[in-house]
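Design job #97: recover the sequence.
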């Protein structure tokens, strides 16, 4: 039995809809009794209400956590899963969460539990592309990934809240196999996602953690496309850190987030696309390059998270810490409607 925790959020509701579309009957859970009950009444699915530090996992084989920020929710839920022998999945994109779960690999193996974070847009498509590139160039020592989009679909409250909480945390890359702190948005480059060159800026995307666990490529950088004004704000956060950590400023930022729409509308999601570009290079200068075109990120998250939970419930024969491509293979993302991959000739972009 699959239990989805965090069903009252924007992403949670999309995942519940996708699960029902697929004919699954998960248990729905969350912290807000009234909201959980309303979703249960609308869907006809069983519900449970519990705080993150006291979960009811009786009869559950897979817990899919969609309640962020995962820096707050992952550890207590994983603790409970390890005690109960329940497989744990989530849709985090937070480096610290990935690294924290990777450090619990031995615990998970001893408990017979799979820890599989990042089964949404963070990081399924980029993780699958990273492994595909590694398979094309097994000698790769450098991996560069970039994320882009078109259509103007916005972000959910949960995504923006997580980003706001980490605005003063700086950037991160992997060098020599180790995660290294760098300034926020410290590096830019040009990338062609298939629609002409675009400026992208370095970000601490989850692949700084997961791509190394998947490919063991020692040097990893991740970029994303943002409007110039957003890049300037990101760069300014390098010297505004003390201000951004002030409680009054955090409250003001959260109030603005809460006042915004919960997330993109169905029409915005339908009319938007996401793109992932990747490049690997080895010590001899050999390169391989590829890119993915995908449905909008929240749409893809609902599909990949539900499919990952379904596969784990059916039994993937693996325990311990895993990554999406590491568990399901580089072709996992290609099994979803609207996803296509293109291998490029070396040196054709950037």
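Job complete. Output follows.
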């Amino acid at each position: 039995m699959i239990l989805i925790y965090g069903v009252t959020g924007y992403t949670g509701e999309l995942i519940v809809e996708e699960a029902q579309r697929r004919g699954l009957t998960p248990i729905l859970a969350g912290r807000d009794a009234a909201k959980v009950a309303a979703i249960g009444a609308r869907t006809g699915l069983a519900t449970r209400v519990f705080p993150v530090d006291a979960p009811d996992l009786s009869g559950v084989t897979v817990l899919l956590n969609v309640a962020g920020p995962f820096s707050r929710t992952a550890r207590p839920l994983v603790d409970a899963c390890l005690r109960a022998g329940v497989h744990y999945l989530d849709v985090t994109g937070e480096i610290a969460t990935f690294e924290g779960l990777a450090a619990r690999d031995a615990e998970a193996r001893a408990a017979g539990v799979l820890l599989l974070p990042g089964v949404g847009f963070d990081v399924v498509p980029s993780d699958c592309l990273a492994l595909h590139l590694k398979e094309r160039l097994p000698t790769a020592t450098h991996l560069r990934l970039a994320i882009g989009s078109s259509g103007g679909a916005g972000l959910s409250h949960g995504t923006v809240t997580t980003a706001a909480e980490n605005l003063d945390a700086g950037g991160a890359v992997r060098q020599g196999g180790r995660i290294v702190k760098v300034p926020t948005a410290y590096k830019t480059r040009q990338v062609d996602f298939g629609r002409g060159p675009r400026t992208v800026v370095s970000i601490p995307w989850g692949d700084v953690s997961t791509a190394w666990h998947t490919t063991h490529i020692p040097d990893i950088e991740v970029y994303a496309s943002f409007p110039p004004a957003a890049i300037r704000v990101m760069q300014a956060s390098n010297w505004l850190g003390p201000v951004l950590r002030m409680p009054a400023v955090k409250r003001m930022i959260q109030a603005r987030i809460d006042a915004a729409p919960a997330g993109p509308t169905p029409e915005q999601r339908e009319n938007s696309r996401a793109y992932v570009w990747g490049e690997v290079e080895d010590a001899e200068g050999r390169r391989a390059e590829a890119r993915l075109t995908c449905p909008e990120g929240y749409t893809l998250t609902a599909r990949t998270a539900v499919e990952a939970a379904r596969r784990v419930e059916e039994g993937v024969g693996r325990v311990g810490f895993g990554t999406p491509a590491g568990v399901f293979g580089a072709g996992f993302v290609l099994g979803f409607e609207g996803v296509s991959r293109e291998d490029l000739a070396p040196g054709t972009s950037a």
